[in-house]
Amino acid sequence: EPRNVRVELGARSYDILIGGGLVARAGGEIAARLPGVRAAIVTDRNVGGHHAGALAQSLEAAGIASTTIVVEPGERSKGFATLQEVVDGVLAARLERGDVVVALGGGVVGDLAGFVAGIVRRGMRFVQIPTSLLAQVDSSVGGKTGINTAHGKNLVGVFQQPALVLADTGVLDTLPEREFRAGYAEVAKYGLIDRPDFFAWLEENWRDVFAGGAARTHAIAESCRAKAEMVARDEFETGDRALLNLGHTFGHALEAATSYDSARLVHGEGVSIGMALAHRFSARLNLASPDDAVRVERHLRAVGLPVSVDEIPGELPGAERMLDYIAQDKKVSRGALTFILTRGIGQSFVARNVPASEVLSFLKEV
Ligand code: NAD
Ligand code: ZN
User: Fold this and answer.
1) For a Cys staple, 71 with which of 77, 215, 269, 319, CB 3.0–4.6 Å?
2) Which helix (H) or strand (E) holds 15?
């Protein structure tokens, strides 16, 4: 039986089921919650090749007629051109408002398909079947959807909560190792935000999480529970949910500084370096013990994640330019920046008045 984590949002509450074989069971789970629907499956070529056939079969067996729309893999598909293709695909299949868009893929497909579900016919129903570790523990939960523009990432979108999330732990077996590791950075993040026991558990059990089975299911379920709690407390990201950005201020700056070139850095790797830096920076500000920063680095390094900017191939801009990237990512008011800092493992907090000068001198050292 799969684990069930419930996201409590009143009338829009939904289940996240986590376990093996859920793609094969998807038809039954969807039909039980959304009787009588037809479906558009949105997937990318990588994921579709492995798993779309099994999903379509499962839907058909449950009496759900479906059409499959395949996009190119990669962040570039999160843009206006692909949005239009998918919207046209859904309309060409003559789906109605009560029908369902099913996202089968990583965060790119989830964000794109969720946005489509949010805008076609002023809002269709939506089911997430996340297939990357990052999508299972992060992007499929919480209802943020959207696309990128020339002005930056994720600037056009809507909040569109899914009716159901099916995190099939088995599909992760076809995920490239590097992508799995990158997603793991977000798993570790939940421990570092406010779950020190979970972080300690990961230090002991990460090998089993990578191997699959019960430990993997546990790690994903704990991560979903952590995210679900934060989303329930702050659906539209006006307060507490900001803690989810631990490691992301430095991480986003590094992604921008490497031109979002996935050959150099993928998101989770940037987050890994960012979390290591956030802990070192907190120690430097005398908020946390340097031992905690060492412990965080030791764990991330053990799983094979980068923890230092030196590990990024190619040249990086200097400290001043990096500060510009950070200032673009976060609102700067009177020379002060907002950062997620920490008092120790699992004791993160939102720091709203970090002097830009402190950040700059830290960046000159790392
Ligand atoms: P992704 O969707 O590009 O997937 C990574 C790669 O793995 C792709 O090449 C994909 O085809 C492949 N893949 C995925 N699942 C696979 C599987 N089971 N087998 C084989 N290959 C598989 O990237 P991602 O890391 O999953 O997601 C990143 C995106 O998520 C970014 O666009 C980011 O902005 C977004 N995101 C959104 C939220 C949110 O709250 N909505 C949160 C975090 C990240
Ligand atoms: Zn992230």
Assistant:
1) 77
2) strand 14-19
Which sequence positions are flagged as catalytic?
A: 122, 144, 186, 227, 237, 241, 245, 248, 252, 267
As annotated, the binding site for NAD(+) includes 107-111, 131-132, 144, 153
Same domain, 26 and 152: yes
Q: Is the CB of 270 under 6 A from ligand 1?
A: no
Where among 173, 193, 214 does a domain terminate? 173
* Positions in the chain whose pLDDT score sits under 50: none
From 173, 191, 220, the end of a domain falls on 173
- For the CA of 270, the nearest ligand: 2
Characterize the bridge pairing of strands 164-168 and 14-19: parallel
**317 — alpha (psi -120 to 50), left (phi > 0) or beta?**
beta
Residue in the block written with tokens 């830096």: 277
Helix%, strand%, coil% for the chain, nearest 5: 55, 20, 25
pLDDT, tens only, 327-352: 876 556 567 899 999 999 999 999 98
Torsion sign, CA atoms 259, 263, 265, 266: positive
Range of the domain at 79: 3-173
CATH code for position 361: 1.20.1090.10
CB 160 within 8 A of CB 126: yes
Rounded CA-CA distance 237/327 in Å is 19
Angle between helix axes 248-257 and 267-284 (nearest 10 degrees) is 130
pTM score, two decimals? 0.96
pLDDT of residue 238: 82
**CB-based burial of residue 304 (10 Å sphere; 0-12 exposed, 13-18 middle, 19+ buried)?**
middle
Query: Which among 50, 136, 139 is the best mutation to test ligand 1's pocket, defined by most ligand atoms within 8 Å of the CB?
Result: 139
Ligand number nearest to the C-alpha of 137: 1
Residue 173's CB is within 10 A of a number of other CB atoms, namely: 11
Is residue 179 in contact with ligand 1, taking CB distance under 6 Å? yes
